Amino acid sequence: MGCITKHYLNEYSVLGVWKIEEDIDTLLGMVELDSDDRKRFREFRSNSRKLEFLSVRALLAELLGKEAKIVYNKNNKPFLKDGSHFISISHSYRLTAILLSTNEQVGIDLEYMNANIAAFASKFMNKKEKIVKDHARAKYHLYLHWCAKEALYKICDKEGISIKNNIIIQPFELKDSGEMKGIVKTDKINLTFDLSYAKYDNYAIVWTKKKIL
Question: For the CA atoms of 205, 206, 209, 212, what is the dihedral angle to 10 degrees?
Fold first, then answer.
């Protein structure tokens, strides 16, 4: 299917989502891999990781053109080689998402909601955060908290942040799409973020952007 949405959040930022329905050979024909990309691609053992890798490059080409290239720092955080945009990437099951901005740092996370997330919610939820009591909606609510915390972890790009203890998602009205606020507070950081969320099929997606000095 390829790119299923290209959503311009404002004049500086764009969010793209790719649904992977192609095989490896088809995706290889849609991208131009440099030597570093080819080396990384060969290191993947599973077809699913190869498909994710190629779908990210195909989606990036759709958003910025085939000349756009991703590089990584020592912590495996992605950057654009030309420095033209901040970038955040997420993929789960058959969906890949990229958030780009020319003037704000970005964070995005998506998850396919197939796991019993309540079984390990204590690993990322803290006592200040509340989940709806309705079981059918609670799973989605928990996934949104998880995605929000992952997106905030990515945008802050700081080592030593505890997703459970240093990131707090404030109460919000649970809908198919909406807004929420998150706070990241450590000895070095005390920031509040606006986050957006959406539900697509059985996926939860959360993203945020902010100028961070």
Answer: -130
Residue range 87-146, pLDDT digits in tens: 999 999 999 999 999 999 999 999 999 989 999 999 999 998 999 998 889 999 999 999
Q: How many domains does the chain have?
A: 2
d(C-alpha 97, C-alpha 122), whole Å: 27
| Tokens standing for residue 188 | 């070095």
Range of the structural domain that residue 182 is part of: 109-210
- Which of residues 103, 131, 161 is at a domain's end? 103
93: left (phi over 0), alpha (psi -120 to 50) or beta: left
Q: Could you tell me if 61 and 89 lie in one domain? A: yes
Query: How do 105-112 and 203-210 pair as beta strands?
Result: antiparallel
Domain shared by 32 and 88, yes or no: yes
- C-alpha–C-alpha distance, residues 92 and 188, integer Å: 31
Q: CA angle 86-91-94, nearest 5°?
A: 140
Q: Please, where are the H alpha helices in the chain?
A: 24-28, 35-43, 47-64, 135-156
Give the DSSP letter string of 146-183: HHHHHHHHHHHT-TT--TTTTEEEPP----SEEEEEEE
Q: In the structure encoding, which two tokens stand for residue 35, read together? A: 């030597």
- Angle in degrees, CA 65, 71, 75, rounded to 5: 145
Distance of CA 44 to the CA centre of its chain: 21
